């Protein structure tokens, strides 16, 4: 969707708790979701040539906002202090960095491994996507070069790849590499047959093998979560969920299932919190609460609460801001990279892909995230890779890897019929939903009054 963007003193991350995916979470948070008037859900429509009202920037501020793409959509001024005197990183940082936009590639590069041989197989297979941008069968000449390069890298580096596998996973990894070899021969035949339409599906299959091999290189969880968060629900590894959305008022799309891969290697607290809520069926039946062309957001429960109320404490459960910096072994907590002065740092899970999933929070409360989540509808012109104020300020913990393009068709009021965990439950530790189940047993036994606050909360969870 093309859009004209003017310099405004509004940041999408700051507007009304905007259903700011708790990208903040309360009033004035980028992704938080404020209670507006009689209805708490807000839908902002950015249309061609339409911009919201806001305080005009000075020439200096306008230049800064263009560089940072901080002021994207109309709305309520919420980052005026930041916009008036922002810490400006080196321009070279803003225009550097590989613009990897494919969610699968981002997830592969985010794995805590260091095996050059497998990366040399991965890269040319990923480059096939660029080759296919060439019109017609001419693209196949470039694809053939990609396949030959990947095949050569696999033959030369197979021993090194196998040596990099975790000991308990070597047999499975070797089997996957055999399948990869056969698959590349099949892809070579597809190219020779000039069957362009068959290239992308085979490429996807081969990259899945590569990703599985790379995951088999991870031997256990690579670091210790800080003690103060160690008893929270943690996802120590990867997990995948299917989110089924019932789409209203769209004759071309009645429902859609989005596959989402959650990355606990780089965001164990954030991903663990989400998986725990999924297992509680917290999001089932919840409406989409924001869909404005910039993000899709949900997670604000009915009633006065703006996050998940833990029945065991009767208080809102919040999690710390959690960001993994590229090159570091463990995430940083409770502070944005800007606050830490890490202007040149790159995040391991960047806002590069359409369908990047992150936590909303209150703008000025780093540790206020609870249940509100959002997906970025990335437009490179508005949110350039490594050049926006999302990276390093909000906790990314996954990517939509299937049907992500359909997120643009989701509207406010569409219903999440269910979010179901399809893999990775074994990676969840300290799951509080199991504790909730034990409370339910006590409730049903009559030891807790149904009319008590905790009883009412537990009955809600059961239903």
Write the layout of secondary structure elements.
Elements: H1 59-68, H2 80-84, H3 91-94, H4 103-109, H5 116-131, H6 139-163, H7 170-192, H8 199-215, E1 234-235, E2 238-246, E3 255-263, H9 268-279, E4 290-291, E5 295-298, E6 309-310, E7 315-316, E8 322-323, E9 332-333, E10 356-359, E11 373-376, E12 396-402, E13 415-423, E14 428-429, H10 432-444, H11 453-462
Antiparallel strand pairs: 1-14, 2-3, 2-13, 3-12, 4-5, 5-11, 6-7, 8-9, 10-11, 10-12
Features:
disordered C terminus; 14 strands; Cyclophilin; eight-stranded antiparallel beta sheet; alpha+beta; thylakoid; Four Helix Bundle (Hemerythrin (Met), subunit A); two-stranded antiparallel ribbon; EC 5.2.1.8; peptidylprolyl isomerase; E_coli_cyclophilin_A-like
Describe this structure in words.
- This is peptidylprolyl isomerase.
- Among the domains are: 103-217, Oxygen-evolving enhancer protein 3 (PsbQ), four-helix up-down bundle (Four Helix Bundle (Hemerythrin (Met), subunit A), Up-down Bundle), CATH 1.20.120; 227-435, Cyclophilin (Beta Barrel), CATH 2.40.100.10.
- It has an eight-stranded antiparallel β-sheet with strand order 4-5-11-10-12-3-2-13, sandwiched between helices.
- 31% of the residues lie in helices and 13% in strands.
- It is of the alpha+beta class.
């Amino acid at each position: 969707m093309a859009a004209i963007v003017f310099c405004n003193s509004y940041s999408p991350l700051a507007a009304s708790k905007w259903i700011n995916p708790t990208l903040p979470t309360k009033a004035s948070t980028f992704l938080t979701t404020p209670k507006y008037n009689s209805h708490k859900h807000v839908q902002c429509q950015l249309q061609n040539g339409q911009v919201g009202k806001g305080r005009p920037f000075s020439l200096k501020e306008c230049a800064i906002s263009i560089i940072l793409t901080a002021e994207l959509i109309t709305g309520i001024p919420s980052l005026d202090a930041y916009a008036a005197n922002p810490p400006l990183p080196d321009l070279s940082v803003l225009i550097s960095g590989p613009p990897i936009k494919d969610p699968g590639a981002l997830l592969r590069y985010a794995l805590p491994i260091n095996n050059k041989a497998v990366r040399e197989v991965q890269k040319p297979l990923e480059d096939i996507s660029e080759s296919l941008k060439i019109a017609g069968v001419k693209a196949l000449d470039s694809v053939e070069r990609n396949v030959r390069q990947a095949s050569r890298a696999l033959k030369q580096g197979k021993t090194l790849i196998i040596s990099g596998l975790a000991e308990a996973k070597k047999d499975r990894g070797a089997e996957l590499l055999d399948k990869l070899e056969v698959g590349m021969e099949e892809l070579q035949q597809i190219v020779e047959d000039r069957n362009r339409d068959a290239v992308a599906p085979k490429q996807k299959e081969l990259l899945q093998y590569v990703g599985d091999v790379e995951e088999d290189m991870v031997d256990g969880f690579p670091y210790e979560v800080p003690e103060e968060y160690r008893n929270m629900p943690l996802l120590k590894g990867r997990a995948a969920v299917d989110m089924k959305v019932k789409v209203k008022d769209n004759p071309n799309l009645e429902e859609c299932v989005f596959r989402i891969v959650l990355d606990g290697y780089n965001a164990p607290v954030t991903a663990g919190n989400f998986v725990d809520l999924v297992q509680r069926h917290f999001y089932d039946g919840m409406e989409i609460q924001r869909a404005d062309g910039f993000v899709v957001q949900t997670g604000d429960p009915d009633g006065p609460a703006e996050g998940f109320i833990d029945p065991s404490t009767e208080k809102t459960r919040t999690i710390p801001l959690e960001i993994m910096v590229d090159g570091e072994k463990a995430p940083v907590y409770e502070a944005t990279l800007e606050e830490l002065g890490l202007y040149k740092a790159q995040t391991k899970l960047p806002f590069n892909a359409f369908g990047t999933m992150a936590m909303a929070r209150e703008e000025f409360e780093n540790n206020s995230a609870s249940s509100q989540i959002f997906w970025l509808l990335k437009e490179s012109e508005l949110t350039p890779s490594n050049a926006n104020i999302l990276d390093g300020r909000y906790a990314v913990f996954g990517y939509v890897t299937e049907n992500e393009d359909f997120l643009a068709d989701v509207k406010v009021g569409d219903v999440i019929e269910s979010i179901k965990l399809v893999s990775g439950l074994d990676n969840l530790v300290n799951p509080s939903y199991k504790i909730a189940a034990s409370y339910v047993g006590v409730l049903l036994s009559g030891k807790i009054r149904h009319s008590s606050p905790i009883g009412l909360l537990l009955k809600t969870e059961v239903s």
